[in-house]
Structures
1.
Amino acid sequence: MKLQTGTRLGLYAVLELARDPDRTLSATDLADRFGVSGHHLAKVLRILANAGLVRGGRGASGGYRFTGNRRRTTLMDIVALFEPTPGHRAKEPGEDTDIGSALQRVLMEIDEIAEATLRSISLETMLKSKGPSLRPG
Amino acid sequence: MVAIRPAQASDLPAISALDRRLTGSDKPQYWQDMLAPDRHFLVAESTNGVLAGFIAGEIRAWEFGQPPAGWVFAIQIEPELRLQGVGTQLFEALVTRFRENGVTRVRTLVDRKDHLILSFFRAQGMVAGPSLQLDKDLS
């Protein structure tokens, strides 16, 4: 599954901040951690802040912290802030043909499985998973 | 606080009633069959003797070509008693039984639109398995 850069950054930022909700990290800290541009991450953090998932200070050195609910927020909640809702995207050329609609059914099947997977994993589940990289740093 | 113990015939009316209330389907014979010796059928009972939930499973060997694994067929928790760890206690008790019987893998099938139960199993550490379920409408 290919996620847009903004979506991946959104997931990275929320998971990093949700590891320790009492901790504050600047957009620059987060950008350095993931090796991305601070400017791009600042836009992502604004979207997350509008959704109530993080609260942040002003400017590149202002700190952000997690303000959502780790148990209630799923990966899909974050993906949905950046990606078109499955089944609600613009129609592609050729979709009305028999081959196009058959291919569309296969792609929808894949989308449904991906959505179910993302919707079933809460931040809490993700952060307590056994992967060493997700243990609080 | 609940106690986990094997289900008995006397639990069946409460099990059937809870399942019927939550799923809308009445299947007393199915639950009766779960009392068979090769099944693992456990109930969670609250301190006042009320059914808090149940879990049912079985060890299946070479099902669909897969090595022996413990299958979870069903789990239901009284809605008012959810988010108190009852489901986790039942799941862990079933998994312990599976381990005692020599299997090292637990498996289940979940409706992909049932986000509640999918999230529950994910929280227990379950991930997508090696098989894909395929269906065909025969009507």
Note: The first strand of chain B starts at residue 2 and ends at 6.
2.
Amino acid sequence: MIDYIALSIGHGVLAIALLRLVMRDGLDVDPLLDGLRQAALERRKARVDARRAKRRGARDTKPADPQTQAES
Amino acid sequence: MLGFVFLAFIGFVLLLGLRRPYLWVLLYVYIDILAPQRIGFGVIQSLQVSLVAFAAAFGGWLLLDRKQGVTFSFRQALLLVFFAYCFWTTGHADFPAEAGTKWNWVWKALLFAIFLPFTLTTRARIEALGLTMVLAIGTIVIGTGMKVTLGGGGYGNLKFFVNDNSGIYESSTLATVAIALTPLIWWFTRYGTIYRPHWAVTAFAIALIFACLMVPIGTEARTGLLCIAALAVLLLRYTRRRLLFIVGAGVLGLAALPFLPQSYYDRMATIAAPGGDESASTRMAVWEWTLEYVAQNPAGGGFDAYRGNSFTYQMPVREGTGNSTSVEYRKVTDEGRAFHSSLFEVLGEQGYPGFIMWALLHLTGLWQMERVRARWGKRDRAGDNGEDEAWIAPMATALQLATCVYLVGALFQGIAYQPVMLMIIGLQIGLNSYCKRIESAREQDALDSYSGPRGRIKAKRGKADGPADAVTA
């Protein structure tokens, strides 16, 4: 009788745990590592955008080349 | 009937695994520990459920898993070399047939320990493995604890689900493993996410730890008592209120004394006087024999090499009538006496090379967990860890304690290749790799934040000066 009770408790708790795991997204993809990766990607993208904007801004403010002006 | 219930449970997990193949790894862990095919009757005994679960676990990982961040660590390589070496010694064993029988289960346990860290790529998986191990052992322990509490037990009298005195169903082995897992059980009350911290979880954990403590008492396993004592001493290192802990443990121990049977006192008394007990006396003789044997056979004699031993020694036998007790020293001859110690088991079977590998495997585990504990505990105290990382240092502590308790138990019993402890090694490797991946992601991000090669050099210099900056950046 005691063996049956012990087996029921152990298997019951394990079955519920497994059901919860099946429904959990974090089982196959770690939220923390995924978050770090996403954040790093976003930061990298932001840096690239900022660098491009800076370059574009520098080109716009640069005075026109005198030679090209003479040709035109 | 019971066999069908087990089959239904296994079928249920196999079905769940179709959605999450990692569950097949957990299924193998459950089958390997609890051995339902040995508990149930009928069809389940004729089915190779363990093989099916392993094939599903390995196949599922190979074909369906993302395998993101999978690495092959030094300890896995060490396990692989140890595996190959054990295979070689089996081929050159003193007792080939017996060595082959032991090799049949040892290779599976070693191979699974090598494979396990590949699957442990997320926190949920690490936790799920720990929980499955705790609950599989817990199922045996709950029954044992209930029997002992209700008055059952005694040396060699306590009945488990399986009564062939092998594997985890050997009383001293169960006592050691149960005590070794208690810190991990407590971890779930604070940091569990499958079962979130709740009074019901704490109550279950307390009851389970109590049942674990009942195992050495019910089985009267002396090793179990030593493991409890070792765990109590080790816990002092992690306890903030040490004096309160010592007083509490003392009061608890004293309160338990009146409930212990006389047979328990008699059995424990042989720890201090090993000469009066055959089991203890022969250990000394076997250990001496092993040292002589390995001096002549440095590469070891393969599994079950102890079968070649034979020795005669004097043992005191007490006989009492009325008030007088006479002690007579009798000559006892023993043949094929088991090693009764994992250290001597590995030394005799695998020689010096195998022993060095085995010892290194456990010592690196202790060191690795100490490093993780120190590093992530420091971050925790500095407030750098979020909720997502606060669990890491306590998990490392629990796994480190598990190894310590196991090593204490292993001093007095031949459990060098115990599958549960090899799974603990797999869990340690998985946790360490997971921590490295977090650190690596942060360091990479810190490196990227510097633009151009000059920036990268600066970042590397910064890392060399103070790694914490790079990590927290």
Note: The first helix of chain B runs from residue 2 to 17.
3.
Amino acid sequence: MKLLSRAEEIILLSVLELEGNAYGISIRDLINKNTGVKWSLAQIYDPLNKLTHKGFLVKYKGKSTPERGGRHKYLYQITEQGKEALLEIRKVYENIWKKIPKKALT
Amino acid sequence: MSESIRPPRIAEWILRFILRQDEQCEKLGDFEEGFHYELETKGSLKAYIWYWSQVLKSIPLSVKNLFYWSFAMLTNYLKIAFRHIRRHKAYSILNIIGLALGLACCILILFWVQDELSTDAFHEKIDSLYLVRTIQHYGSETSQASGSVPALGPALKAEYPEIINTARFNNGQGEFLFTSGEKKFKELIQMADPEIFQIFSFPLIQGIIEDLFSGLNVMVLSESVADKYFGRDNPVGKTITINEEYDFKVAGVMKDIPHNSTIRFNVWIPLEFANTLWGPDHTKTWYNLAFRTYAEVDQNFDLGSFNKKILNRIRQSRPETNSDPFLYPFGQVYLKVWERIGQIRTFTIIAFLILIIACINFMNLTTARSSQRSREVGLRKVVGARRTQVTKQFFGESVLFTFISLVTALILVRLLMPFFRTLTGKPLYFLSLINLEMIGGIFAVTVLTGIIAGIYPAVFLSGFRPAAVLKGKGISGKKGDFFRKILVVVQFSLSVILIIGTLVILNQVKYIENKNLGFDKEHLLYIRVEGNLKKSYASMKNELLQNPGIKNISLTSHSPTGIYNNGQDWDWEGRDPNINPLVTYFGVDPDFPETFQMEIAQGESFRKRTENSGLNVIINERFAEIMELDNIIGARLSNGGMTFQVIGVVKDFHFTPVYREIGPLLLYHNPQMREYRYMFIRLNPGDIPGALASIKEAAKKFNPEFPFEYRFLDQDYDRLYRGLEREMGIVRTFTFLAIMISCLGLFGLASFTAEQRTKEIGIRKVLGASVPKIIFMLSKEYAKWVLIANVIAWPVAYYLMHSWLSDFPYRISLSWMIFFGTALLSLLIAQITVTFQAFKAARLDPIDSLRYE
């Protein structure tokens, strides 16, 4: 399996953290809060589309609100595959970290 | 939150445009929510900026996606296209080969055209070079010639500041004997001013230009001639003796002149040397048009006003002249003065006719198959393909086919190059012909072919209604059928025009080659009178006449294939002052009419005259016609101080190529005027090798210095028509290819029709129809369309060929035989093509064709 990219990983984690309220704006805000970097909406949608296409996320229709011009929200939820991919990349990181001697960093 | 403030319209519109339909709701909503958040926290200006920046940042990504998806679709289209090629191998091969042949023809002809158009273009200064031409007035008539008087060139350079440089060529080249050590060959020499090496791009690879101006006895050799005499040694500074008399020092070696040059020579010597040969003032006169003058001009030069200025220049120096010089752009000389543009246009038209025929083929075969693809189109539409997508797919497919064809065509062209070189007689090489323009041209032609060929299938197939198609109703082929038949008619009309054209051209060329010249050119050979022979030709003639293998011998000033001596201002009693014909002079000895076996129409020949004064002349019928005298024999002709008496009229004979009109001619044998250059010998048929051996022996005896060389006159005539013959060969080849391409198309179409009617044929056979009957049924329809094509093509071909023939003074008439012959031929070709398929279809066992009902 191909490893997730950093952007994909961050987005997947954000979707997990947001627990059912994950959509474009909320993901963007969360990422801003967690990393301090402002992502453009396009930077978020591209990985979102790819993850959906790969089957790591599913998209479903949410409520519509007036500040959206009466349009529906589309919410994202992680799938089992998505979770596996996250665990996989975490394992890879841990394996790598384990091999690095502690003094190498100091 | 204020309801009234909305995101910027234009930005929203852009966003809507770049998003896919299914993601619009989500993304637009998100963008707007973000916009309102910004609006509340930071104010409207910041919010607008935010929205815009977000939209702009989305653009690159969506563009990337667009390409990604188009690429995905493209691979799908390609896959489908290749599957089709694989499944319908025969059709695809027919389609590709037809188009490849068409493209190959087109490319080959474009090569030829490119080469023709590139004539003289290698001169770096081509745009500022001019040829001095002359308008001559003959009474009320005028004619233009490329000659000019020798004194004009230096005068132009001295008197007009806009003329930077001029250079003169002696018209025609003389053949001289070269001696260098042991080596002895005859070479053609071009006499010209050394300025030619400054004006034209004839680069010296050895020696320096300054040396060429250093004296009278310097020469420049072409690389190949230098190689012949000196091999690997440096020729510069070496000496070559000309005609055993004049020593020349080799001052330089030039690169061989490329084949596409109107000025060609292998050996150059200074023009001033002509004064040594032909008298001290030969290159200084204001008459004698036997020179060509080229001028290089500066940027201030204006052709129109300059020609007005020089109009009277020659009249100042020679008031009685009838010649007006004018400058003519050198770059147009080949196309316009040499009249090549018509030929080039004809060939380009043929190339495009062939391309059209090939395109029609392609359209026919593609549309014929289209009903088989209706299900695919239906399914694509059901899955959500838009009409434009289907259109694009078919355009793409046809362009793909053209590109496969193009690759095939290029391979074909590469393989056919040696054959093409023989056909055109031009040293054309594949790689040297491929340049950026050519690649662009071929590419454009290919894409254009693909698009033209794809229009019909793309428009026609994309219009299918999916519901109807998938229900199995299919589309009624009627409309497509009719369209295809029209295309077949157009295609065959074009082929018929080409066939008629080829037949007419073929007949005309045959006519020219076989036309009675007015004398017997068989068994007539000649040797040149040169060296010692100039003094001893009479004894040699007497000795040879003892030989039984030799019938007659005549000495002449020219060979009948190249008489360039002419003049005007002839006067006779009762001459209309408006008539001042240009008369060709042919110096002969009294045996000439007998040797050439010419007929004397009136009066008598020189030999029958008892008192043979040099003032007796014989004229040809054309001249007699112009003189309009009741009693032509004994009439007096005068020119300047000389008066001649007409003793006979010879029947018109062709002393110029047969595609030129016979002009007035004067045969003289004045001992003061004559210089014999040729000895014509008529052999008795029979022991020709024996006669040749004795001629050689005599030549060795009377002229030991010069190598023995002879030529048969009929070979000279063959050479004269070699260009015509070559072009004929090209036309014939390409017509044949065009017909072949048409037949490929017809073959495919016939097999398609036969396939479509398999069931009908099966039923007919069950009901008792015989095989021949079915073949007749299938093929009679095509016969009908081919006949219609003939009827359409005839008037067009008649008009075209009539105007083509009108350029020839002696021509064949357009007989109905050619037209009916063509009709029969085309019918036959079409029938053979169709019958093969019809036969196959008729032979099928009805059990097989009806089983799957």
Note: Chain A touches chain B at residues 23-25, 28, 40-43, 45-46, 49, 59, 64-69, 71-74 (CB under 8 Å).
4.
Amino acid sequence: MIGSEIKRGTAELAVLSVLQDGPLHGYELARRIEQQTNGALRFTLAALYPMLYRMEQQRWIRGAWETSANGRRRRCYRLTSAGRKKLSPLQREWAELFRALQRLTKVSHA
Amino acid sequence: MRDWQELVRQRLSGLGLDAAERDEVHAELAGHLEESYEALLKEGMTEQAAVSAALFQVTNWQDLQQKIVIAKSRGHLMKKRIQQLWIPGFLTFILSTVFLMTLQKLGFRPRIVGGGPIAFLFYAPWLGSLLFVGALGAYLSSRAGGSRGAALLASVFPVLALTAAFLLMFPIDLIIERVIGNHVDFSIVATALLREGIGWLLVPGAALLVGGLLVHLLLSPQSSSQGTVIG
């Protein structure tokens, strides 16, 4: 069972990483994450929006209403400078964690 | 055509946010559901199955409602607290300290009331200024929508900070005296506490509070109507 802190950390990293490429609205953000992780990470509406609102309050992302080419109004989220600053150490921490886990698995298999 | 916004509004009717923000959340979630539904239709689902599958993303709307309110209000509460308490409070603290230091620099002598070990020092102009400082703290807090409690706390903030310093200073002083081997008479400490407490906390606190109360009474209809908005 994955702990809630780890889940939250993974989810935040996923959102920040995807938004690095440009602004996206909620549905598209969830779809991109699912695509880019080959379905390993999936966000339902119930999981996505409370997290987006929390990250917005922390000023890591900023949401603004925009009208798309098909005339639909969607709230698009973009990475703020605070979010960019948060992303690099987060990426480092997760990379370290995965390396450590890989080493551990190799040792236990040897 | 399905009204997704209405669908979300019905399920999140108790969203404890202000009207504009609530509408935004409803619209945003409705947009998400609509896109999910359309994608499912494209995948070949029937209309009814696509609606069910889209709505299946939320198993507990009550729980979602709570999570959204917590996520949205965390920042609001912090922002409100800063505007209603910390900014006015620190301003009253800085103003009262700077004014007292200026008086001391200009050579104003304090008035001595009482005699012997219980002699209180009062800077009359400073005490007078505290009425205005307290009033300013309460005004700024009330203008930011602060409750009566927040406004009065902001007005007496300098004394609260001094009280905290007092409470820390005396036990530390007692410990130091004991460590270096000095005998400390408890009655002397108690007298000093009483004297300094009255001179630097009680009387200035009363002056600040009177200023704060006066402003709060003047602004009370305005402050109570602003205080009802919950973020």
Note: The interface with chain B takes residues 25-27, 30-31, 44-46, 48-51, 53-54, 57-58, 65, 72-75 of chain A (CB under 8 Å).
